[in-house]
Design goal:
155 residues, alpha+beta, Aminopeptidase, eight-stranded mixed sheet, globular
């Protein structure tokens, strides 16, 4: 495990910090590939309540360093999907995303998930490919947003 980084379950009181982390990281790394309309729509969907109110079957984890949240991953084992994975913009490329992804994959496997699907930002595609994900079809452009559907199947 990366030095000083702990992965723990998301708590209700994390919601505002997680929301801010996702907004800041999205604006730096993902928003440049979206239209202005797409950026507005995505940001409008990000509220602390959104994170607290995720559906049944959700798995939510945060990466914490020195008491501060530095990363987050949310997924759902009922439909075998990862809804989001973000690392604080000044902490990227330090292994935090890998730790979060490994944790949620491990928990999904325990729940019997055979494959995980996700919609990667164009920025994140190389990361997911290194982690064993494959493009499942072409790039999808919708409502000013753009993503790459990907999947990882377990043996």
């Amino acid at each position: 495990m990366e030095k000083g980084i702990k992965i723990r379950k998301f708590r209700r009181e994390d919601a505002t910090k997680v929301c801010n982390l996702v907004r800041e990281t999205f604006l730096k790394f993902v928003a440049p590939s979206f239209s202005k309309k797409g950026v507005r729509k995505y940001l409008a969907s990000l509220t602390p309540e959104t994170f607290v109110g995720m559906a049944k079957g959700s798995l939510k984890y945060v990466a914490v360093e020195e008491g501060k949240i530095v990363g987050v991953v949310f997924g759902n084992y009922k439909n075998g999907s990862i809804g989001l994975l973000f690392v604080r913009k000044d902490m990227v490329r330090k292994g935090i995303g890998r730790l979060l992804l490994n944790k949620i994959e491990k928990e999904m496997k325990k729940k019997g998930v055979k494959a995980i699907k996700l919609n990667a930002s164009l920025y994140a595609v190389p990361f997911y490919e290194k982690m064993g994900y494959k493009k499942s079809r072409g790039v999808v452009k919708k409502d000013g947003q753009i993503h790459q559907p990907m999947v990882k199947r377990f043996k």
